[in-house]
UniProtKB/TrEMBL annotation:
Cofactor: [4Fe-4S] cluster
Topological type in the membrane: Multi-pass membrane protein
Entries under Gene3D superfamilies matching the protein: 1.20.5.1930, Histidine kinase-like ATPase, C-terminal domain (3.30.565.10), PAS domain (3.30.450.20)
Lineage: Bacteria, Pseudomonadati, Bacteroidota, Cytophagia, Cytophagales
GO cellular component entries: cytoplasm; membrane
Entry keywords, A to Z: 4Fe-4S, ATP-binding, Cytoplasm, Iron, Iron-sulfur, Kinase, Membrane, Metal-binding, Nucleotide-binding, Phosphoprotein, Transferase, Transmembrane, Transmembrane helix, Two-component regulatory system
Main location: cytoplasm
Compartments where located: Cytoplasm; Membrane
Recorded superkingdom: Bacteria
GO molecular function, one term: protein dimerization activity
Listed EC numbers: 2.7.13.3
Name of the protein: Oxygen sensor histidine kinase NreB
Length: 603
């Protein structure tokens, strides 16, 4: 009777996960698309500024060329003619290069040009003047270099240069003005694009609320009601089982023996459908004297060193990995002792949506040894024993249901309450009163932001992809930036020694969790406004320091061990530090802030 609510809860959870992924994906798509489009416009604007700069330089060079030609025409010193001629030739070369760049771009400088038809037409009009100036300048230089006495030819070339240079400047001004006009048009287009993106984002938020969050809240509420009904039924069944057990006093000897065995041999493990261990309970590993083992080892290798028993276990798993299995089989410990197990194999999907198998085992070796006592029991007592076994299994499942109810309650009291408030606030919007409607729409936006913030906060404790892909420093950078956004506090990371080395994955995840816990403590308890995370290293040691300006605390009152009032955060930090062979130092005084220093060896 507990199976239906649990499966329904799993189905609801999967649907909610898909809906949240769609919702967040839509927002992410909107942001990425807007950034790409805006970046394209900014790149165009940057290219336009370079065009205007080159065009301005083109005007300057044409004027400089004209002045240098006039200076050469009036000079009377033969010694000055070569240097003036070289200067004119250099200016003319630069002028020609700039003219070519404005029309065709320059691949060597990664400068591409896409002139509009208007600008292209203007260049076609200006090119004859440009060519006349170039040709007349070259003729003029030739005449002056040859000390020609033909003053009429020189004057004609000067007139040609001056006339065409003036016409060139007029046309060049028109081209610059056209560049400026086109740049302004692009800015106006960018403004319209930004407005469209803003409207689209608002429509996406409203659509997500109407299509995703509101229906999801209703479905979640229905699932929670079903789970609570299942819990009530389970409680009633437990009470009935207690009454029934009291009426079966004649089986007390058997029940005492069985209860004693059950207390000592309840075993639990999780394996993949191929039989590889993903998790194993402490009693399980202690029973088979496997305190240290490869987490990727096969369960059959752990349960027996004998090949025939290993093949039997592998066959049972392979044949029943989809439907599950209940039964008994014999195993052999590493010391050669026979161990009989009563096994319940249950398929399930983990939080990562991966198929796994749960093994709930009972060590029934002693029960096998006392089988002659069981055979003397009546059919009624035997059935009662089986019933008690089911009651115990049901209690295990009820504990799982209680944990699911707790998680569902957290969701209901947190995000669920905010979604309900969002629903009622949306229903109260009166479109006939624009002023009140605007105030409520502002509240709607704030509440929607809080909901998104709540979802991001709930998922932020997952291991970030930066840790796996890039290492500890990028992951801590992302952590500080995200927490700074979520809390409004000034949280920064300073990579003092530019550390970029990759470490063992277990070392990196423990470093990340310790630093995360230290930052969270500074946020929750220290009432700090500034938190600085400093990373530095030497040849042999990596050091991470979390320093805050909070209220601090008295180290003499620091709990050495956790109790009912807390203290688990420091304990977890110390355990993680020991695991990676590091050292943890905490320095703090009242009203003077707290400094947490973590040192680990690099060799």
């Amino acid at each position: 009777m507990t199976g239906t609510p649990r499966s329904l809860d799993q189905e609801t959870f999967n649907r909610l996960r898909r809906l949240y992924i769609i919702a967040l994906g839509a927002i992410a798509f909107s942001l990425i698309a807007s950034q790409l489009l805006i970046r394209k416009y900014l790149n165009d604007q940057e290219n336009d500024s370079r065009l205007v700069n080159v065009a301005g330089r083109q005007r300057m060079l044409s004027q400089k060329l004209n002045k240098e030609v006039l200076l050469l025409s009036v000079t009377k010193s033969p010694e000055a003619i070569p240097s003036l001629t070289d200067s004119i030739q250099y200016t003319m070369d630069r002028w020609v290069t700039a003219h070519q760049i404005l029309q065709y771009g320059d691949e060597s400088q990664d400068f591409s040009v896409e002139n509009s038809p208007e600008v292209t037409q203007m260049f076609e009009e200006i090119n004859p003047y440009f060519k006349q100036v170039i040709e007349a300048t070259q003729n003029f230089i030739f005449l002056k270099s040859a000390n020609s006495a033909d003053s009429t030819a020189i004057a004609a070339q000067l007139k040609t240069i001056n006339t065409n240079a003036n016409s060139f400047l007029v046309k060049m001004d028109e081209i610059v003005n056209q560049y400026d006009s086109e740049a302004k048009a692009k800015v106006e287009s960018l403004k319209r694009l930004e407005l469209l993106i803003t409207v689209f984002t608002l429509l996406v938020l409203v659509g997500e609320f109407l299509i995703i969050f509101w229906p999801s809240a209703k479905a979640m509420k229905a699932s929670i009601h079903e789970l609570m009904d299942a819990e009530e039924k389970a409680i009633r069944m437990a009470k009935n089982a207690d009454i029934l057990s009291q009426s079966k006093e004649k089986s007390v000897r058997e029940l005492q023996a069985l209860s004693k065995a059950m207390d000592q041999i309840l075993l639990f493990a999780r394996i993949t459908p191929e039989g590889y261990i993903t998790h194993i309970g402490e009693r399980f590993s202690r029973l088979y004297k496997a305190q240290k083992f490869n987490i990727n080892a096969k369960i059959s290798d752990l349960l027996s060193p004998l090949e025939n028993e290993q093949l039997t276990i592998d066959r049972i798993i392979a044949e029943n990995k989809k439907a599950g299995w209940e039964g008994e089989f014999k195993t052999t410990s590493q010391t050669g002792e026979d161990i009989w197990l009563d096994v319940s194999m249950i398929p399930f999907n983990s939080a990562e949506d991966k198929s796994e198998l749960i093994l709930i085992c009972l060590d029934i070796t002693k029960r096998k040894e006392f089988m002659h006592q069981v055979e003397q029991l009546t059919k009624e007592s035997f059935e009662e024993k089986m019933h008690q076994q089911k009651v115990i299994s049901r209690q295990i499942i009820e504990n799982q249901e209680n944990e699911q109810n707790r998680i569902a309650k957290d969701i209901h009291d947190g995000i669920g309450q905010m979604l309900t408030g969002l629903k009622y606030l949306l229903e109260s919007v009166d479109t006939t009163d624009p002023e009140k409607a605007e105030v409520k729409i502002i509240k709607l936006k704030e509440l929607t932001s809080n909901i998104i913030k709540g979802v991001r906060t709930a998922t932020f404790n997952l291991t970030p992809p930066e840790l796996k892909d890039y290492g500890i420093v990028p992951a801590l950078t992302e952590l500080t930036q995200e927490l700074s956004k979520l809390t409004g506090k000034d949280i920064v990371l300073f990579n003092k020694s530019e550390f970029s080395q990759r470490l063992d994955s277990l070392v990196e995840i423990n470093l990340y969790r310790i630093t995360q816990e230290a930052i969270n403590n500074a946020i929750k308890y220290a009432e700090s406004s500034h938190i600085i995370v400093t990373v530095s290293h030497s040849q042999n040691i990596l050091s991470i320091i979390v320093d805050d300006n909070g209220k601090g605390f008295d180290k003499s009152k620091l709990k050495s061990k956790p109790d009912e009032e807390g203290g688990m955060g420091l304990t977890f930090m110390q355990e993680r530090v020991k695991y990676i062979n590091g050292r943890l130092f905490i320095n703090s005084s009242p009203n003077e802030g707290t400094k947490v220093t973590l040192n680990i060896p690099l060799t």
